[in-house]
Amino acid sequence: MAQPDSKKIFFENLSGAGKAIAVLTSGGDAQGMNAAVRAVVRMGLYVGAKVYFIHEGYQGMVDGGENIREATWESVSSMLQVGGTVIGSARCKEFRSHEGRLKAAHNLVQRGITNLCVIGGDGSLTGANLFREEWSGLLGELVEQGAIEEDSVQKYSALHIVGMVGSIDNDFCGTDMTIGTDSALHRIIEVVDAIMTTAQSHQRTFVLEVMGRHCGYLALVSALACGADWVLIPEMPPEDGWEEKMCQKLSANRAGMKRLNIIIVAEGAIDRSNKAITTDYIKDLVVKCLGFDTRVTILGHVQRGGTPSAFDRILASRMGVEAVLALLETTANTPACVVSLCGNQSVRLPLMECVQMTQEVQKAMDQKRFEEAVKLRGRSFENNLRTYKLLAHRKPESELPTSNFNVAVLNVGAPAAGMNAAVRSAVRVGISEGHKMFAVSDGFEGFYKGQIKEIKWADVGGWTGQGGSLLGTKRTLPAKHVDKIAEQMRMHNINALLVIGGFEAFLSLLELLTARGKYDEFCVPMVMVPATVSNNVPGSDLSIGADTALNAITTTCDRIKQSASGTKRRVFIIETMGGYCGYLASVGGLAAGADAAYIYEESFDIRDLQANVEHLTEKMKTSIQRGLVLRNENCNDNYTTDFIYQLYSEEGRGVFDCRKNVLGHMQQGGAPSPFDRNFGTKISAKAMQWITKKLSETFRQGRVFANSEDTCCLLGMRRRALVFQPVVQLKGETDFVHRIPQEQWWLKLRPLMKILAKYKTSYDVSDSGQLEHVLRTRPKESDASVAM
Length: 788
Known about the structure:
Layout: E1 20-25, H1 33-46, E2 50-54, H2 57-63, E3 68-70, H3 98-110, E4 115-120, H4 122-144, H5 151-155, E5 160-165, H6 181-202, E6 205-210, H7 217-226, E7 230-232, H8 242-255, E8 261-266, H9 279-290, E9 294-298, H10 310-329, E10 337-342, E11 345-350, H11 351-366, H12 370-376, H13 379-392, E12 406-412, H14 419-432, E13 436-440, H15 443-448, E14 452-454, E15 473-474, H16 482-491, E16 496-501, H17 503-515, E17 526-530, H18 546-562, E18 570-576, H19 583-592, E19 596-598, H20 606-622, E20 626-632, H21 641-651, E21 657-662, H22 674-698, E22 699-700, E23 703-704, E24 712-718, E25 721-726, H23 727-730, E26 734-735, E27 740-741, H24 750-756
C-alpha cells in the first residue's frame, strides 16, 4: 500500500480565517452545479472562512438584501443529487451596466466579501473579470458617495475571482469537460436508446435535435456513443451536395438489413452558406428522396434536467475544493483563474486566456474557417470528429488499403459495460486499415477450442449501446492451453492480437509474452485495452466499465437514501464490488455523499470504526437524518459487512437505526454510460492504429515477427495522456497477490470525501497551485483527452 510522501504539501498551512467567500451560479443551469456549490461551502467552512450564497446569480448580487445569505454546513445537505442549481440563476442586464456593478460592489463590501467563486459559462466569467478589474475604481466611487468608509478601500482593496465552468454544451476552451456535459449526454443517450427500440419495430428514421447553438459537442459525442448514421454540427458544416450523400448512406444501411436510421442535429447546425439546417428540412428531404417513415424528436430542456451523473458530481466536487484552494493562495497580482479538467487532473488556467480562445472559435466559424474552428475546439473535439467519420462511414472496397494481415480481437475476464463499443471500434478501424478482422468467442477458452470467425463491418452495427460482452468472455488464462492456442493462431494465420479485459487480460499478455520463447506464433504485436468495473488494471488510471458501475452505485445510493426520507434517522451500510481495489467504494462514496468508505488500500481497525460511529452519531443529533457508509467487498477479512452493520446498529442505538445492502452484480450490468461508450470507442481505435503501425514495422521477408518488449503493450490513461506501456515493465508496479496496482491516483480523492463529510484530515495539494496557460501546447493537445 502506498505510503504518504514526506515531500507532499498539505493544506493545513492555508487558512481561510478572516476571509469571506461568496459563491454564485450564473447563466444557464447545468446538472452538477449543486455539487460544486456544496464543495465550495464545505471546503470554505473547513478552512475557517465565512461563506455566503448569492441567490439568483448577478441579479442577486446587484439587489443584495436577502439574496446574499451566510451559508452553513447543513444548508448544503441533501443537494448533491439534485439537478439544476438550488441557489438560483438569472441573466442580469443591470450587472452589465456600471451602475449595476457599483450596487454589487457595495453589497459585497458591506459583508466583507472579497473572494468570489463564479459557476457559469464564458459570459458569466467575463463579467466577473470585468468586475474584478473595476473593483478599486468602484470602491473609490462608493467612498465619494459616502456609501462606505474610506478605510474600507484599503481593507477590501482587491477582489479575487475563481471560475468553474457550468455548461452542458462543453463550449469552453481550456477544459476537457464542463460541469453538466456528462449528465446532458446521459439524458440524450437515454432518449436515443429508447427511440431505437421503437424505430426498429417500425423501420423508421428518426431525426433528433440536441442542444448546442454554437457548439456541436453534444451532437458529435452522442452520435459517436449511439452509432448514429449522420450528424450535423456548426463547427463542420457538410460539403455542398451533402443531401444526396446522406440519402445514399441511409439507403445503403437499410439495404444492409438495418431496420432504423438515426440522424443527430445540433440546434446550431448550418450549411456552408451559413444557412440553418433544421430537423424539418431533413425530415422532408428523407421522405421525398427515400420515402422512409421519418419522425422528428426535439429533446430541448430535457437535456438540462434530471439528476447529475457520477462523473459530474465528482468533477464538480473536485473543482469546488480546488476553487477554494485557489482563492486561499491568490494575491493581488494573481490573474482571475478558472479551474479546469485536463485528462483526470485538475488544473488552473488564466480565465481571460480561456475566454479569448473560446471567442476565437466563434470568430473562425463566422468567417467560415471551419477547419480552424475544429482545431481551436481542442484535440479532443478533433479526435471525436475523426473517430466518428472513421466508424460511421465505410470506404468503398476500392479505396481500402490491402494489408493482408489478420487481426484477432477477444474479451477476457468479467464482462464490463463498454466492451462491445470497444470491439465495434476495433473491427471497423481494422477493416478501414485494410485488415481482415477475426472475433474470438469466450476469451482464451474459445480461442483454444477454435471458436474463431471472421467479423465484418455490418456484424458490429448497434453494438455501442449493448451491455455485457456480445463476444462472450471467460476468466480462463492461456498458459494451460498455450500449445492449442498457438495451433489456432497458425491455422487462422493471426498476425496481431487485441485483448479487451481486466486483470486477467493483463496476466494473459504476460503469459503470452513468456510463451514467445517456445512458440513463434506469439511473436506478433499484442495490445491490451483495460475493461473492468473494478478499475484495478496497472498502467491505467481508468478502465472501460468503471464509469457505468459508478453510476449504478450512485443511483442506487440515491434511492436507498430517499427510502428513509420522512422516517427516523437511519444509516445505510452498502457493500460494493472491486475485489481488493477500493476505487468503486471511494469514488462512489464521493459521488453519493458518503460519510465513510472502507477499503483494503487504507487499513483500518476497531478504533477507526468506533470514531466513525461517534462522528455519525454527533452529526445525526444535530443535523442530518440519513447516513451512508460504503464498504469494499474485500477491505478486511474480519470487519465484514455484517460486522460493521451490527457494530453501527449497537453503537447508534437510540440515535439511529441501521440497514445494509449488498449491491452485487447490478454494478456489472446495464447499458454502458456515454463515457464508457466513448472511452471504449476511442481507446480501441487508438489500439488498432498502433497494431497497424507495429505490423508495418515488424513485417520482414514475407512474415510478421515481433519479439521485442515494446510489441506487447497495455494502452492506458496516465494522468493526462494515453500511453502504450510494455506489460513486462508494469510487473514492478503490480501487487499480484491482491490484483491491484501498487500506486493508485484516486487515493488522493479520499480526503476530499472525508472533508465534505466533516472529518478533520490532511489533503494533499502537491498537484495544485500551478497556474498554466491555455495557449501553450499542453498534454491534452497531444490526444490526452479521453474524458470524452
